[in-house]
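G., the chain you wanted modeled:
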Amino acid sequence: MMIPHSRPTLDEKDRQAVLAVLQTGRLVQGEQVAGFEADLSARIGVAHAAAVSSGTAALHLALVALGVGEGDEVIFPGYVCSALLQAARHAGATPVLAEIDTATFNMDVQDVKERITSRTKALIVPHLFGLPADMAEILALGVPVIEDCAQSLGSRYRGRCTGGFGVISIFSFYATKVIAAGEGGMVVSNDASLIEKIRDLRDYDERQEDALRYNYKMTDLQAALGRSQLDKLDDFIARRRAIAARYDRVLTEAGFPVPVALPDREPIYYRYVILPDDARAFMKTMSAAGVACRRPVFKPLHRYLGLSGYPVTDQVWERAVSIPIYPSLTEHELAHISDGIQKAGLSGGPRAC
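Predicted structure as tokens:
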């Protein structure tokens, strides 16, 4: 039997939360969505939130709310999923890809600085794999920041939750994200006017005036599951950190580099990524042992666009492997994964997340 690379962590409380909504007969956006917005904004420490249908929808509407459109440039790293590229396209903006930092895999701030022009309207800053980016350096660039917290819910930078630094921030609740609602996203901000724009844009029905809007609503079914999951976030994060600590011990015993401790950041280990010299061989060996490992990023964005000149991104992508790490891993599964790592015969360079 194969141990999957990712899976949601669901329990009876989650099932009862969804069943309670079914029993009301109201499935669409309603009280549960409003409650989820209030719960998440309170957790992050921001004033306002608007729930939407996905993380990609959240990114799209965040760009539109900031006035990003045709002729504007948006900078973000190329070592991410294609949602960022799609969101920029939806807004009509020109994507500008940045290199990543070799230690953290987050965006290289010096590289970003060199790519800023008079047309730069926003930066999208992912906290990749649950490790916060260096927000102090990024905010010092003076460009409006959209924090992409799809993988970092609950992580902290200098004692504050990610999602509370940018002018606007987004979250995702896809089935295998930090908390799962099946699908869904959230936009948060301390700027009430931005969130009002999001609320206007996410639904086009029964309006007095005609304007371009979208069907980006979250359902109460999704929100009820999301709220139930959010209640368990601290336990989820504690379990992820415990698993990461176990992997650290296993890798140290094998003489393989482990994450570098960064004193100003508290990661949540959404992914545990290593850099073996031969990623394909490692994944094949682990698969034969019944453990599914994957590339944490399917394909760098510059390769979709036919661009070159991203050597760090290329090197990381060629070598990076993500090992299963999620709260529902059993002790038996974790022992099996650890045994597989020990037997795989690792060699490789340092990494930090």
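Confidence is low (pLDDT under 50) at residues 349-353.

Shout if anything looks off.
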